[in-house]
Amino acid sequence: MINIDLTDQPIDVPAALRSVEADGAGAINTFIGTVRNKSTGRPVVRLEYEAYDSMALHQLHKVAEQAAEQWPMVENITVVHRKGTLHIGDVAVVVAVSTPHRAESFAACQYIIDTLKQVVTIWKKEFYEDGDVWVAAHP
Amino acid sequence: MNLKIALFGIAREIVGQSTLEVSAPEGQSAQGLLHDLHARYPELARLTSLAVAVNNEYAADDTLLQERDEIALIPPVSGG
Fold it and tell me: Is B2-74 a CATH 3.10.20.30 domain?
């Protein structure tokens, strides 16, 4: 089963992990993306995430479906992404994957977070003490 | 025809609004739309990339746009 969510509320990490539990799963692999205090050496004060919601949800579903096709033994996948204002240490994204054995859960989890970063329509603006930048916008 | 384009992130800031209405010739392609917008907003051409989305999917350059489509400009994404 695939669960996708995009929320402006703090992500309930334990609930995301519970959501992929399955009797047939011997492995649950999780990626938790958190807000770091520095970006290319510059202290970060906060982040703002903006999303094109309908496309982001659609693309997240597609990425999860691709993972489930590539690793057909996958039991459950949950992806939750935060939007709005986040501070240092806040959870921005959780990917959780359950599979019978560990190798596939690592691989599917990594595929999902790597592909999410390439295609899902979410944008991050970093705020510093002396300015702000849309991440990756310019070469 | 009139196209309504949703703008996000830095593209929204460059244009200064979150939706843009443009009149385009029938048979306008995604690439043609980008060409026109680059001319109107040169800052858009300086981005690392700029894609057109049609109905929640990334559009190929030669995708033809229609008035009823949900169209959006997609600057470089940075989720995660």
Answer: yes
